[in-house]
């Protein structure tokens, strides 16, 4: 199994079977299971079997395995509206330091993910200047 383990990591322990989970799907590179404190019925996590804290720490071949599995969870739960969420860093609401993608059904206003969307005012000149700065680095 292509697993890189970190001894203190709770999700690495789940991958190794040292901590139980309600496993929904598994491939050689990915594990999907129910979130223990769901925001809604069907809230699940999809994680790479590779320890890394943030998206940029995970090899591409692990990342490409993840979205098709999140899609399977959407189909299996029958969720009609849902969010795919991946937090990076404490300030961005990450609590577990092993990359994970949430699949969170949004059945109604009260359940599922609630988010703020604090849009900032900008103008085309500022937007274009930033675009010029970043595009060559992508
Ligand atoms: P984060 O805030 O890091 O994006 O989300 C971490 C998620 O992992 C939370 O939704 C939390 O409920 C879930 N979680 C934390 N520990 C465990 C665990 O031991 N088992 C399972 N199944 N989920 C967990
Ligand atoms: Zn880990």
Automatic annotation (TrEMBL):
UniProt cross-references to InterPro entries, sorted A to Z: HINT, Histidine_triad_CS, Histidine_triad_HIT, HIT-like, HIT-like_sf
Annotated PROSITE patterns: HIT_1, HIT_2
Keywords from the named record: Hydrolase, Magnesium, Nucleotide-binding
Superkingdom of origin: Eukaryota
UniProt motif Histidine triad motif: location: 98-102
CDD domains according to UniProt: HINT_subgroup (cd01277)
GO process terms (BP): nucleotide metabolic process
Recorded catalytic activity of this chain's protein: adenosine 5'-phosphoramidate + H2O = NH4(+) + AMP
Cofactors named for this entry: Mg(2+)
A molecular function (GO) term: hydrolase activity
Domain annotation HIT: ranges: 10-113
A Pfam family of this chain: HIT
Active site per the UniProt annotation: 100
Keyword presence, Thylakoid: no
Similarity-based family: Belongs to the HINT family.
UniProt name for this protein: Adenosine 5'-monophosphoramidase HNT1
